[in-house]
Amino acid sequence: MISDPEGTALALFIAFCRIGGCMMVLPGFSSARVPMQIRFFVSFALALALLPILWDTIYPRVSGGDPAVYMRLIFGEVLIGTMYGLIARIYTLGMQFTGSILAMSIGFSAPGGADILEDTSENPLASFLSFSALMVLFILDFHHIVFKALADSYTIMPLGGDPSAQKMLITMTDTLAQVFMIMLRLASPFLIYGLMFNVAVGLVNKLAPQIPLYFVSTPYLLMGGIFLMYLSIAAFIRQFAGGFSAIFLG
């Protein structure tokens, strides 16, 4: 029997704020293809599952507290949860950035189509790569890493403390810098291939300016780029998946 129903409900809602803020922007769960009701019920179920573990941390802070203090707790918890979700979100957005660079480098300039994950227009190759990378992350249980980090975050960012905007901004900028370097390393073979191919075509065009080399070379550029992707796609996705833990827990 629950001795303090009001305090239990308040503790559950505070736990839901941090978890729900993370789920609001977490890759996959925040997709436009996932109904909002599903996101809500998953977040609520996670809050119910984690509340017994975090009971001694959350309940003493909310039982019999001041309403103004409780509203401040809600704002801080949503902010912290959103920051954790954005770290994973930035990492997956980096794959879309890489896919766009890759498509440009190999001459895959197809018109933008419907994105698999969002209600936006996206290059088919970038959409394919981002969906494949996210699927591999789910297969490797990246969401378990995020949920464990959320549970551990009550030690790093305790309930009731004022979230430091400076520390959050430093975390975001460090994440952006690391993600950029990882994605640049993944896209570098295709950047080098595109650069070498276009330099070679430019030299040939100087030798034979009367030949419309742009129309002649584009199919070869695309064919070589797709063949290079065929050879490297396994290592490409594996390195992307392997870098998530280092970024999120680093």
Summarize the structure.
This protein is 78% helix and 2% strand. By secondary structure, it is mainly α. It has one domain (5-249).
Fold and architecture overview:
This protein is mainly α and 250 residues long. It has one domain (5-249). It is 78% helix and 2% strand. The chain has eight helices and two strands, in the order ααααββαααα. α1 (5-25) packs parallel to α4, α4 packs parallel to α7 and α7 runs antiparallel to α8. The two termini are 42 Å apart.
Topology:
Layout: H1 5-25, H2 36-50, H3 55-62, H4 67-105, E1 113-114, E2 121-122, H5 124-139, H6 142-156, H7 165-207, H8 213-249
Antiparallel strand pairs: 1-2
Helix pairs in contact: 1-2, 1-3, 1-4, 4-5, 4-7, 4-8, 5-8, 6-8, 7-8
Number of strands: 2
The major β-sheet equals:
2 strands, antiparallel
Strands of the widest sheet, in order across it, are 1-2
Residues in helices, as a percent range:
over 70%
What fraction of the residues are assigned to beta strands by DSSP?
under 5%
